[in-house]
Amino acid sequence: LLFLLLPALGAAATGEFDPYRVLGVGRSSSQADIKKAYKRLAREWHPDKNKDPGAEDKFIQISKAYEILSNEEKRANFDRYGDAGESQGFAQQQHRQFHRFHDGFYFDESFFHFPFNSERRDTSDEKYLLHFSHYINEIVPDSFKKPYLIKITSDWCFSCIHIEPVWKEVAQELEALGAGIGVVHAGYERRLAHHLGAHSTPTLLGLINGKITFFHNAVVRENLRQFVENLLPGNLVEKITDKNYIRFLSDWKKDNKPHVLLFDHMPVVPLLYKLTAFAYRDYLSFGYVYVGLRGTEELSSQYNINVYTPTMMIFKEHIDRPADVVQAREMKKQLIDDFLSQNKFLMVARLTSQRLFQELCPVKKSHRQRKHCVVLLTGEGEKFAEAYEAFLTFAVANTKDTLKFVHVYSDRQPEFADALLMDEEKYHGRSAVVILERRNNAGKIAYKALEEAWQGSKEDNFILLDLLDQLRTDPGLLSSETVVADLNDELAPMFLVRWFYSTLDYISDCWDSLFHSNWREMMPLLSLLFSALFILFGTVIVQAFSDSSDTRDSPPSGKEETAAKTEKNDASFSKESNSRIPKKGFVEVTELTDINYTSNLVRLRPGHMNVVLILSNSTKTPLLQKFALEVYTFTGSSSLHFSFLSLDKHREWLEYLLEFAQDAAPIPNQYDKHFLERDYTGYVLALNGHKKYFCLFKPHRSGDEGGTLGSCEDYDALQHAEARGKPSCSPGSRSIKNKLHKLSFWMERLLEGSLQRFYIPSWPALD
Fold it and tell me: One biological process GO term for this chain (predicted)?
């Protein structure tokens, strides 16, 4: 009978929450109809507009229904299985049916204390529910103003049920103090749960300044309060006594902030005060006075403090008297927020950044919301102190909601000062007052400067007061317009300091991740670390074995030994050849013919070069042997290829190329009687097929030890020699052996890229 009732009970459970019924749409409705119904109901049941006691619950149901139906996958799962779960399949379907059976079957939860059905649970968590987009766009930015305590929970979680009473108590307490509370349902928000690094439920974590910290202690009230308190920076509130209160209050000029003192009889700083200090740390500096401590009597008596009632005082430019005071037997968050929000700035704040300029002097939105800034452009030091004090006295006497009094150090904001004063001589070394109004966020302002420099005299006060009175009735008084650049951030820490703190934060995150984070999170990092170590040590081991195998190679043949001994006199060449380890024990030199011409030159891969030796049939053997010895140390480079070209077959091709290098190897006229006698054997061309250029090596002449590298020698002497009928390049005039002398040095310069390059329009055909 129980299993026969299973489908009916499942249907009853499904009927508890029907998103179609909540939004009043049919199952065949389009997304446009669903969205239209959601907007209409959201406007109708929004708690801010609808004062019905059940409006908040109704609004939550509407939002949940729209979340399911706006997602095609969740909507399909609801239509198929009766809920919006993401898993599918027969096994999952049976699990859901079993789940719905327990949800629908009636238990007296007050007796069993196992509220498995999430719909019947305490709805106090529903107002804290987080969604992925809401978390990214709102919660993370808000975590820079207050810390968040977040719980990840799910259905059928016995531990979640166990900690629920403690969680409910702590959540209400911390929310009243100013902390943020969030709840993530892992069943519906798997993406967010995975993003937070929660792989089990329940999981508690803290969020502050966009950084996540996991809670690892027992879930009791004291531990949770201490966890949230530990999230806060340690330097938010300074302990104040008779010895340091003057120094603390006098720092208003350096910090450009009002200073707040809280007098209380608690030995430790209350968490409410720490949370408040974190929220207002950009605007105010906070100090705490424990009135029961010996060493605070002078401070308490000077400001007439009632030691039995918590007192909060705010000090601005004058440290001998507070600018505002509030006393209450129980300091509530709302009371403190109202008090501090009205005293966020000094009476005459100094513009130290563009952000502060935008807050104090906002852009006008309408004629009724005009706000003007009265700016004192002054300097530092005793020379300008009198003008500043007079301006401060005037500001205190004439403070209004539509007026803000500020001052700027001209030497720290020179661009701002020059734009307003136009670098006029009468203001040099003196203070000036300018009334301005920001017109847009691009820096455009309308302004009017006092005709004379500000000295703080009675006449100056009357002139400024008269201008402000005229401004109330005639906005056109600000007749000048200009565009000012963004202000410099004077209080920003140096780059090295920012880098140091960023490094400390990174090390702290790594330490916390290593010892406290879930090991599943650490697996990618550990995998990357071990992979890098494996590659590093593997490379070292392979290199060690390859070096040892090279030392066991057989000695060179007799011919190579003889050739090496012949070249011992050239010390530079020996040094270079000993410092290189070629990949092969021989030099692979191929003949450049019309068959392989395209692949070996024309379509040569980018970055590759073909080094071509020019020879004839009679000089082929000795030149190739010498060429192999000279280039052997360069065979380790995969971008170099070695070839030879027969001068007997392809003289015309060679002479066509050399025409583009006439400054290095001039070609004589074809009617020259020695034209056919020219000997090009021993020339070496480095051809770059992709970029269409070549570098030229001219054979070394005996008797010329300097030897020009990278181009030919002086060709005038050669032409004179040929004109006398003594061709210097003939095999009879110099030994074939010395033709390629110093080719290795030329190769070094080739790899360095320091040789002259001769460009051609296209490669000629090799017939």
Answer: autophagy
pLDDT value of residue 183? 94
- Tell me the CA distances in angstroms from 407 to 372, 427, 471, one per residue in order: 14, 15, 20
Residue 4: alpha-carbon gap to chain centroid: 60
The CATH number of the domain covering residues in 237-342: 3.40.30.10
Tell the burial category of 173 from Cβ atoms under 10 Å away from its Cβ (0-12, 13-18, 19+): middle
| Bridge partners, 55 (sequence order) | none
pTM above 0.85, yes or no: no
**Domain range summary for the chain, segments of one domain joined by +:** 19-80, 120-231, 237-342, 349-483, 586-663+679-701+735-766
Say if residue 179 is exposed, middle or buried (CB neighbours under 10 Å; 0-12, 13-18, 19+). buried
Task: List Cβ<8 Å contacts ≥24 apart for 279-284.
Answer: 279/145, 279/146, 279/178, 280/340, 280/344, 281/236, 283/257, 283/258, 283/340, 283/344, 283/345, 284/257, 284/258, 284/259, 284/260, 284/314, 284/340, 284/343, 284/344
User: Taken in order 458, 461, 466, 469, is the CA torsion positive or negative?
Assistant: negative
Q: Pick one of 3.40.30.10, 3.40.50.1820, 1.25.40.10, 1.10.510.10 as the CATH number of 120-231.
A: 3.40.30.10
Domain spanning 349-483, CATH class: alpha beta
Task: Of 682, 613, 681, 615, give the one whose Cα is nearest residue 642.
Answer: 613
Alpha-carbon span 451 to 472, nearest angstrom:
20
Residues 6 or more apart whose CB falls under 8 angstroms from that of 124 comprise 168, 171, 172
pLDDT tens-digit series, residues 474-502: 878 888 899 999 998 887 776 566 667 67
Nearest to 695 by CA among 647, 756, 643, 736: 756
Q: Measured between alpha carbons, how far is residue 329 from residues 309, 315, 398, 491, 687 in Å? A: 5, 21, 34, 37, 92
Burial of 724 (0-12, 13-18, 19+ CB in 10 A): exposed
Domain 586-663+679-701+735-766 sits in CATH at 3.40.30.10
How far is it, in rounded angstroms, from Cα 172 to Cα 181?
9
List pLDDT tens digits, range 286-322. 999 999 888 899 998 999 988 889 999 999 999 999 9
Mapping DSSP to helix (H, G, I), strand (E, B) and coil, where does residue 354 land? Answer: helix
55-97 pLDDT per residue, tens:
888 888 888 888 888 888 888 888 877 765 544 443 344 444 4
